[in-house]
Amino acid sequence: MLSKREVFDGVPEEYLSHKERYENAIRNSVVAFSLVRKMQEEGKTSINNYRDVVGGLLGSSVLRDGSPLGLHYIMFMPAILNQANEEQQEKWLPRAWNCSIIGSYAQTELGHGTFIRGLETTATYDAATKQFVLHSPTLTAYKWWPGGLGQTANYCIVVAQLYTKGQCHGIHSFIIQVRDEETHMPLPGIKIGEIGAKLGLNAVNNGFLGFDNYRIPRTNMLMKHAQVLEDGTYVKSRHSKLNYGAMVFVRVVIVFDMVNYLSKAVTIATRFSAVRRQCQLKAGETECQILDYVTQQHKLFVSIAAAHAFRITANKLWLTFNEVNEQLVEGNLQRLPELHALACCLKAVTTADTAACVERCRLACGGHGYMMSSSLPLTYGLVTAACTYEGENTVLLLQTARFLVKTYQQLDSKALTPTVAYLKTAAAERFCVGWSNTTEGIIRGFQVVAMRVIIMSTFNEEVQEMSRTVSPQLKEVLHQLVDLYCTYWALEKLSDLLLYTPISQKEVESLRLRYEETLTNLRPNAVGLVDAFDLRDEMLQSTLGSYDGRVYERLMEEAMKSPLNAEPMLQSTLGSYDGRVYERLMEEAMKSPLNAEPVNYTFHKYLKPFMQGKL
Ligand SMILES: CC/C=C\C/C=C\C/C=C\C/C=C\C=C\C(=O)SCCNC(=O)CCNC(=O)[C@H](O)C(C)(C)COP(=O)(O)OP(=O)(O)OC[C@H]1O[C@@H](n2cnc3c(N)ncnc32)[C@H](O)[C@@H]1OP(=O)(O)O
Ligand SMILES: Cc1cc2nc3c(=O)[nH]c(=O)nc-3n(C[C@H](O)[C@H](O)[C@H](O)COP(=O)(O)OP(=O)(O)OC[C@H]3O[C@@H](n4cnc5c(N)ncnc54)[C@H](O)[C@@H]3O)c2cc1C
User: Fold this and answer.
1) What is the pLDDT of residues 198-209, one digit of tens each?
2) What's the CATH class of domain 1-237+568-615?
3) What is the ipTM score, two decimals?
């Protein structure tokens, strides 16, 4: 067995180079997941409960900034369980389970993450050879983000637009080998590398992946829900969204993740607040623990309560997930929309609240909270990513809103599912006649708020269709900015206005409408307004914010600067701006200290022995 000291002699990760951090991540991961394999051999974990074990490891201090093997467990295996038919599960699951293959999950592309029906990667069926031809028609079609794909995984689940007999049938999942199992070299027709440094999760080895007419057997299409027969006939799924199942599972798991991260952050901040003494409550007294300040308690205690609330919620959501999936197996799809809406809502709410609470815990520790050694900045980097991956929070909340508005519109015609049954009673005028300062009273109050907001949303939908007029004169635009700023903060501080001013409910409702109209009015001038700051690209130093809008080319150019991408060389143009792609790649490769190695040496030193069960 490897010992930690063998690699970097206890040097904290912050002081390692990019390549050393990758080696450290690989080494720690194969050691950690060899334990999982040992537990498998001893029957202490199985394909049905590995998530607790793996979840604990992935959130542990051993893999503190993520793992290049994380996606293998987080999405590659769940996707096979969720999307592959029995024959395919028999073929792939044992190899995935004992890590003789390492997988990732490649759905997001440079050009699309949220709108998955707009993904550009194509999988075109060739009946003559009984194969699918995978192709990336544009730079924006390159898969971008899949964890572990940069230098680690040799297989991945790829989500692509399925074409057969000249017709597109939308996105489907395929299991695809991307690297040679012996040499780890990218296979011909595969363009692959890592995307570069990120705000956090820098041990995850996120990658990019492009296909150049790459052929796979027909049987590599995951065919549990939809199929393509040998002659190219398409057999559609019972429900078009069953293909989205892996995302629902991960959103549910993320809620558990947030419990772990929030518990850690508030433990650090509360213990520190008991140790830290600062200032005197009364002159001449000894300095008091900062935990004695009400302001400090205001910052921290709600996080303790939230950690418990999220744990209870996560367990309830897990039960619902299992209930609904058992019904799906029996062909009953009735509660699928509710599960989707619930998973969207709870993933978005718990990640956003956890990110806010972790940042508040950091601030509550003063300067020492800003130290990497406090682990609070690292934890913030981990949780804030969760607001984006597995469905960007705004988009997921819109999915929940869509479900709630539809539920409201069918209030009288359809039986309500358990989680929204309260809408029936909350609609009744008599439901909340007075306010009681009890837990039940507050919950009833929020149920009324939910009901009224849904009614407002339904009403707004109608109103929004009536008036959209804009006349962009500078004076008018500046007035709009003043208007926006005032209405934004009035709505943000509504509780104070309701407490201290005679603002009425009707006025609040029209304030909300006015706010949304102002957003709409400003939209056509939004880019012009930031151009007016006249910030040159050299000052912005951002791949996303450059004046020319060439976001994707710049992202790829920056990715190519990573030293890890020098091995092996990329075989194709990546749409670089000046067209000098090969000269630039060679220049970059010559800067890499390891460019003599066609494969990162960690494959032979750690990965291959691990995959062959020799560690
Ligand atoms: C073991 C693990 C331990 C620890 C680690 C844990 C966590 C770490 C996890 C992750 C980090 C690492 C990896 C990250 C991976 C990724 O990020 S993978 C990529 C994730 N990407 C997304 O989530 C994309 C988000 N976008 C979407 O999901 C969809 O585009 C959409 C926004 C839902 C819209 O879809 P679409 O356009 O097809 O649908 P609409 O036209 O809007 O119609 C909506 C109707 O469809 C129904 N619907 C939508 N989605 C689903 C679903 N998933 N299931 C069921 N039903 C669905 C919806 O209910 C509407 O129905 P209707 O109203 O009746 O029409
Ligand atoms: C750390 C990390 C790990 C990841 N790992 C993986 C992985 O392993 N595999 C994988 O496939 N992907 C992965 N992703 C990608 C992730 O799934 C996407 O980033 C995410 O789905 C958001 O898509 P996007 O980046 O295209 O953002 P966009 O969708 O472009 O969002 C940008 C902005 O547009 C807004 N917006 C977009 N659509 C709408 C709409 N309809 N209505 C209103 N506003 C909208 C959003 O709210 C947001 O403010 C990862 C991402 C991160 C950060």
Assistant:
1) 899 989 999 999
2) mainly beta
3) 0.97
